[in-house]
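Hi F.,

I've been meaning to write this up properly since the lab meeting, where we talked about keeping a consistent format for the predictions we share between groups. The idea is simple: the sequence comes first, exactly as it goes in, then the structure tokens exactly as they come out, then a line or two of notes. No screenshots and no reformatting. I'm using this chain as the first example so we have something concrete to point to.
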Amino acid sequence: MPGPGNQVHDLNPSAFPPVGLFWTTEIPIAGVDVQLGKGSASLHASDVAILDYGQISNALFGGGPAPTPGTVSFKVVWSGVDERLNIRNTDPVFGGFAGEFVRNTAQMEWNAAVGDYTFVSDPIATSSSSFAEIGHERNGSFFP
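Output, unedited:
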């Protein structure tokens, strides 16, 4: 099995060169459900377009082989209420945000297909987390 020095896949939705906020993609609103009061949320998407750059250095700086297109599908479910937090940070350098958060648990399953390769996680029922959190944050122009 390859170690960290022998990376053979780097799957992400960003096109090269990365500009602004990268390693992110828009998910249709139908794939998102949040019930903050209940401490539950779900996120699911099917056949999201991704690129396999092979190595992170190729994704960030280019110069390597052209990326291979692929798709990824996933489901993440958050549930329970272990702790509720209200945070407000007005520090002029490192602050400028406020939010209500729920610490709970999460489970996930996913699969991806790139070229001749298929990657599949174990079923969501076998997944566990050591930390999970959902919340509502205000920052930037939305922070009073």
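Notes:
The chain has one domain: 4-79+105-130.
DSSP finds one helix and seven strands in the chain.

If this format works for you, I'll send the rest the same way.

G.
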